[in-house]
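Example record for the data management plan.
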Amino acid sequence: MFSGSMVAIVTPFKADGSFDEESYRQLIEFQIENGTDVIVPCGTTGESATLDYDEHERVIKVCIEQVAGRVPVVAGTGSNSTAEAISITQHAKEMGADGVLLVSPYYNKPSQEGLYQHYKALAEAVALPQILYNVPSRTGMNIEAATTIRLAEFANIVAIKEASGNVTQSGEILAAAGDKIDILSGDDFLTLPLMAIGAKGIISVSANVVPKQVKAMVTAINAGDWVRARELHLQLLKFHNSMFIESNPVPVKTALALMGKIRADVRLPLVAMADHTLAKLKTVLKEYRLI
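Corresponding structural encoding:
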């Protein structure tokens, strides 16, 4: 249902720390102009963890307004509280989101049965296409293949964003339930390997900065042009890695700021890049002729 080059878009802030709506609208236009297939607001890259409820709703609403139906909007509405996730997801549906991205419960460290019941409750409560989000490095808990396969039985659970770094796990899901649930890469540097085994696209951090290039690689894969896809994958690898030299989204917001698109501001407990990593980032951006 959702496929191609999808951006986990950043949330820009003004000097006073408030949501910078105008810059956000411009970022959305930059994405659509460069071929991005789906916009994903309020994910980890969008600093959802430090947005209050009103801000979270406003960011999603502005995204839906600005996109104006040109591409799908998949709103990040996950939480470590099932009741809270249901409430936020319902609000996203009411605002007109085309789907939602649901990070697995963090900090609680539920069992696999707890994960299943969490997502089951969401699927049954809100009739909207839902994408599971497995990112163990952030949540402390892996959604095992067997659990995803069980959840694939729910018609409105349409995909899983796999950021476990485990290509074998994604393959197990596709082998057992590929006709019921899609895999979407959650790591830019694994897009080509995952799409090679059947993933439908990438929910990308890098696409915030290089949307045209990320889209070009996905397009090459879908066209079966593996020589070109491999070439683009290898060309982009250093850039992808640079986006994670500090905690996401610090590097990507800094890159966008150096390009003159937004302020680099992030919210505590995140802070500005250290001098030595900033120097590394600038070197990479110059190499890719972005600054």
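Summary line stored alongside the record: The chain has one domain: 4-223.
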